[in-house]
């Protein structure tokens, strides 16, 4: 099932920071810090992180200020990318 169908519309439109709570210290860190928290295939992570950077999401804070709807509207960033971003952020939360 498509990610957007599994989540309520209000959740899709809300900034990620409204439901993924990460220590503010990480906000200024490069999105590359997400790679360290993951146990996923490094190739798929590289693809996601490159797509985020291409779309000017350079820090964890940039990413947390975005919504899933906004991310989904970006080039080369679909539902699977959205799901991976959520997994990476959740892994970072568990690491903290």
Characterise the protein shown here.
There is one protein chain. This protein is mostly helical. The mean pLDDT is 86. The protein has one domain (3-95). The chain has helices at 3-6, 9-13, 33-37, 42-54, 60-64, 68-72, 79-95. It has seven helices and no strands. The longest helix has 17 residues, at 79-95.
Order of helices and strands: HHHHHHH
Unreliable sequence segments: none
Major beta-sheet overview: none
- The total beta strand count reads 0
N- to C-terminal distance? 30 Å
Helix content: 55-70%
SSE-based structural type: mainly alpha
As for the number of domains, it is: 1
Give the percentage of residues in beta strands. under 5%
What is the average of the pLDDT values?
86
Radius of gyration: 12 Å
Which term fits the overall shape?
globular
Count of helix runs = 7
Task: Give a quick set of tags describing it.
56% helix; 7 helices; globular; mainly alpha; 96 residues
Short description:
The chain is mainly α. Helices cover 56% and strands 0% of the residues.
Topology:
Elements: H1 3-6, H2 9-13, H3 33-37, H4 42-54, H5 60-64, H6 68-72, H7 79-95
């Amino acid at each position: 099932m498509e990610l957007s169908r599994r989540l309520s519309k209000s959740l899709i439109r809300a900034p990620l920071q409204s439901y993924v709570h990460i220590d503010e210290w990480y906000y200024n860190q490069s999105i590359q810090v997400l790679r360290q928290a993951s146990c996923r295939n490094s190739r798929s992570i590289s693809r996601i992180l490159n797509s985020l950077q291409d779309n000017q999401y350079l820090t964890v804070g940039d990413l947390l200020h975005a919504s899933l709807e906004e991310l989904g509207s970006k080039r080369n960033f679909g539902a699977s990318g959205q799901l991976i971003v959520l997994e990476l952020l959740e892994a970072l939360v568990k690491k903290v």
